[in-house]
UniProtKB/TrEMBL annotation:
The keyword Oxidoreductase applies. Residues 37-325 form the D-isomer specific 2-hydroxyacid dehydrogenase catalytic domain. Coiled coil: none annotated. InterPro entries: D-isomer_2-hydroxyacid_DH (IPR050223), D-isomer_2_OHA_DH_cat_dom (IPR006139), D-isomer_DH_CS1 (IPR029752), D-isomer_DH_NAD-bd (IPR006140), NAD(P)-bd_dom_sf (IPR036291). Keywords: Oxidoreductase. This is Glyoxylate reductase. GO terms for molecular function: glyoxylate reductase (NADPH) activity; hydroxypyruvate reductase [NAD(P)H] activity; NAD binding. The lineage of its organism: Eukaryota, Fungi, Fungi incertae sedis, Chytridiomycota, Chytridiomycota incertae sedis. Residues 116-296 form the D-isomer specific 2-hydroxyacid dehydrogenase NAD-binding domain. Belongs to the D-isomer specific 2-hydroxyacid dehydrogenase family. It comes from Gonapodya prolifera (strain JEL478).
Length: 334
């Protein structure tokens, strides 16, 4: 048998990345399976091709069932996403399997999506589309939106994505504040200077007309944006929420109530809970909710770059080399 590392690609990669895997003569590539292959079929294909040294691509979830199928020689799991909540990291850590992801590459695309959602939410995009398609363009039939200029925007989570959101929103003339686990040293933001740090999401909500959620999902952020925070926005007059972080950070039931009862004016969501939303979910019927199907990174350039980093992480990890973007597994080991 070849001594080259055996890499299984479950799919989820752009063609340019699959081609790069296929051209690499330092590995043995298995997969990707047919696009409509079931999870059971993918797992069977993995088992039939043991040992697997690298799992490179997108598979949801990656849990003990998948790791068992790969066999005991698995060295690395590499995902094209920046988030890895679909992967059982403690299970990887217990087996000394490394984990690669694709941070930083997608920051610009997600920040652009944030601006899209901010503007679409404020300018009542769904209502505008409804008027457009009805053929009634009379002044009384078209909903009035709100200015972004001078709006108080609070960003929850000033990491790589949150900071890029701030850079893009500041030139519109809005006032930006943020909260995080600690103040973040940041460069000057156009037209505003240094960003104001606010200790805690509650105080940030009190000072904000709109919240932009850009933080990770963890035990402390799950459900953070609930009814209490939402009711504080805009001095209790009904504010807005944009979420480009993770769906469960927002208490979605509370958000739906707020949108229906008026204590939330509008929401722009690229992420929801669950995903995908059931076709009959109430959010889909609300005119004041602008929704995207978790596609904040959906540009050719960004997706190609994410997939190529996934491949580079996977190949180097399978060879036991330094990976460009590796998760520190030490804190996940028991």
């Amino acid at each position: 048998m070849s001594t080259k590392p055996r890499i299984f690609c479950p799919g989820g990669l752009r063609p340019v990345a699959v081609e790069q895997l296929a051209r690499n003569d330092s590995i043995v590539l298995i997969g990707p399976p047919p696009e409509k292959a079931s999870r059971a079929e993918i797992l069977q294909l993995i088992r039939e091709n043991q040992p697997i040294h690298g799992l490179v691509g997108y598979l949801n979830p990656v849990n003990d069932e998948v790791l068992d199928a790969c066999g005991p020689e698995l060295k690395v799991v590499s995902t094209p996403s920046v988030g890895f909540d679909h992967i059982s990291v403690p299970s990887l850590a217990s087996r000394s399997v490394r984990l690669g992801h694709s941070p930083s590459i997608l920051n610009h695309a997600v920040a652009e999506t944030c601006v899209l959602l901010v503007l679409a939410t404020l300018r009542k995009w769904n209502g505008m589309q409804k008027a457009l398609k009805s053929g009634d363009w009379s002044v009384n039939h078209i909903p009035l939106g709100n200015d972004l200029r001078h709006l108080n925007i609070g960003i929850i989570g000033l990491g790589r994505v949150g900071l890029e959101c701030a850079y893009r929103l500041a030139p519109f003339g809005c006032v930006i504040r943020y909260t995080d686990i600690r103040p973040v040293p940041v460069a000057t933001v156009t037209g505003q200077g240094s960003l104001e740090y606010v200790p805690g999401a509650d105080l940030l909500a009190e000072k904000s007309d709109m919240l932009v959620v850009a933080c990770d999902l963890n035990a402390s952020t799950r459900g953070m944006v609930g009814e209490r925070l939402l009711r504080k926005l805009r001095g209790g007059k009904g504010g807005w929420v944009v979420n480009v972080g993770r769906g469960p950070v927002v208490d979605q039931d509370a958000l739906v109530r707020g949108l229906k009862e008026g204590w939330v004016q509008g929401a722009g969501l690229d992420v929801m809970d669950p995903e995908p939303l059931p076709p009959n979910h109430e959010l889909l019927s609300l005119e004041n909710a602008v929704l995207l199907p978790h596609q904040g990174t959906a540009t050719v350039e960004t997706r190609d770059s994410m997939a190529l980093m996934c491949v580079e992480n996977g190949i180097k990890g399978a060879h036991g080399q330094l990976m460009p973007a590796e998760i520190d597994m030490a804190r996940y080991r028991k």
